[in-house]
Amino acid sequence: MPLVRYRKVVILGYRSVGKTSLAHQFVEGEFLEGYDPTVENTYSKIVTLGKDEFHLHLVDTAGQDEYSILPYSFIIGVHGYVLVYSVTSLHSFQVIESLYQKLHEGHGKTRLPVVLVGNKADLSPDREVQAVEGKKLAESWGATFMESSARDKQLTQGIFTKVIQEIARVENSYGQERRCHLM
Ligand SMILES: Nc1nc2c(ncn2[C@@H]2O[C@H](COP(=O)(O)OP(=O)(O)OP(=O)(O)O)[C@@H](O)[C@H]2O)c(=O)[nH]1
């Protein structure tokens, strides 16, 4: 029987960027048209990647802004992050930079498993953030970047698959660093 590994992932970002819609699309397989601000919600899903099985515990948070203080529950015991902005809102992109800095400090400036998501890419005519800007920001963090639309099942699935892979990648890089120190 395969080992089921537990992974806790927190979804953060400014209000109305599509955090709930992405989580709901991933877990329930449908797009939510209406907007109902989230307080905090959790989702669970078993994800199979190759021979490995993961129990993915998702925390969908209330929208944050640059003044938000992130609680310890967003730091302690969290394996990875999905940071979401909307490509139609430059402000949501600016907020994501400040949220990342808070997380980075909260984790003692260690490397973080992060997938940066430019959501609402289906609304491209209203775009305020170009893909190249998202890519550059993610690269500066050593993170992965994706554009998505919560309307698209496959793109959404790709985000959560990617964050599980990012967690493994960062964990392995620590293993390698430790081996180097011993030598
Ligand atoms: N066109 C389009 N609309 C989207 C997309 N994702 C979300 N929306 C819409 O944007 C609105 C806000 O989506 P939510 O998922 O509630 O956003 P949220 O980030 O969870 O919002 P908060 O709870 O306030 O933090 C809803 O009306 C969604 O239908 C997307 O990819 N494309």
TrEMBL record:
GO biological process terms on file: TOR signaling
Predominant subcellular localization, coarse grouping: cytoplasm
Example of a GO cellular component annotation carried by this entry: membrane
Membrane topology type: Lipid-anchor
Catalyzed reaction equations: GTP + H2O = GDP + phosphate + H(+)
SUPFAM superfamilies: P-loop containing nucleoside triphosphate hydrolases (SSF52540)
Entry keyword annotation includes Phosphoprotein: no
PANTHER family, A to Z: RAS, DI-RAS, AND RHEB FAMILY MEMBERS OF SMALL GTPASE SUPERFAMILY (PTHR24070)
Function according to Swiss-Prot or TrEMBL: Binds GTP and exhibits intrinsic GTPase activity. May activate NF-kappa-B-mediated gene transcription. Promotes signal transduction through MTOR, activates RPS6KB1, and is a downstream target of the small GTPase-activating proteins TSC1 and TSC2.
Name listed for the protein in its UniProt record: GTPase RhebL1
Annotated organism of origin: Tursiops truncatus (Atlantic bottle-nosed dolphin)
Gene symbol of the encoding locus: RHEBL1
